[in-house]
# Entry
Amino acid sequence: MIKHVEYRNVSFTYPSRTDQLILNQLNLSFEGGQKIALVGESGSGKSTCMQLFEKFYNADAGEIWITGANGVVNIKDLPASKWRQMIGYVGQEPVLFKGSIYDNITCRDPSASYDDVVWACRTAEALDFIRAKGIIIKLRKIFWMKVSRMLSEEYVYMRNSKE
# Structure
C-alpha cells in the first residue's frame, strides 16, 4: 500500500525532443489514496508526471520516492512490471497500444485468463462497448480484434483464438 509519493527536483525532456524541457525541478508531494488534480496549460507536463509515475519514462534528473509498508524506495529501483501491478491510473485520454483488446488489457499481467479479462471489462463498464463495436458475435473472438478496428471501420485482423 502506498502511503506517500514525493517528486523531488524532477526534470524531464522527451527523448525525441531533447531541446524542450517539459519538467524543470518539479517538487510535488501527496499522500496515498489522496485525490489530486494536476491543472495547467496544454504541454505543461501534467501527463508527463503520470508517465514518469507509471515508469514509461525515467526522469532526467531528480527522483520520485514512494513510501509504503516496506519503507521508502526510489521508483527507479522498482521493476516496471511489478510496479504497474501495484498502481492504477485512469487518464483523461485513453492510451491504446498496438495489438488486440486482449493485448491491451493483459499488458499489465500477461498471465491473466479470459475470465480475468472479462471481469476487467465488466468492472470498467467497457463490456457493452466492446460487444457493440464487434462485428463478430462471440465475445471471446472480439477480444482478439485489432484495436484499430475497434476505433474505426478498417480491416479486421483476427488473432488465433482457441475457439
